[in-house]
Specification:
Helices cover 52% and strands 0% of the residues. It has 88 residues and is mainly α. The longest helix is centred in the C-terminal third of the chain and has 25 residues.
């Protein structure tokens, strides 16, 4: 009985090696290239904070406040753009 199992195993092994291999094609994930608008650097604003004084509140004057709000808005817009681009 053991001789039969060895002979059968050898026959199956030779049959598997003699046949052509089956080619299975699978999709390969490709790295997506983000648009240039998302890769563009975000320019930093000029000086925002000032020395403490009567003309500034929390070391930010009116011009610095506007620059800071604009910069934070730009950062949030870029973050939302990345989220929209990455969503399926």
């Amino acid at each position: 009985m053991a001789h039969f199992k060895v002979t059968l195993g050898a026959a199956l092994l030779l049959a598997a090696c003699a046949s052509d291999p089956v080619r299975v094609e699978l999709p390969v994930a490709q790295r997506a290239v983000p648009p240039a608008e998302l890769m563009a650097p975000i320019l930093l604003p000029g000086p925002i904070f000032t020395a403490p004084g009567a003309s500034s509140l929390a070391c930010v004057d009116a011009a610095g406040k506007d620059a800071l709000v604009e910069h934070i808005t730009t950062l949030w817009q870029r973050l939302d753009a990345w989220g929209a681009w990455a969503a399926p």
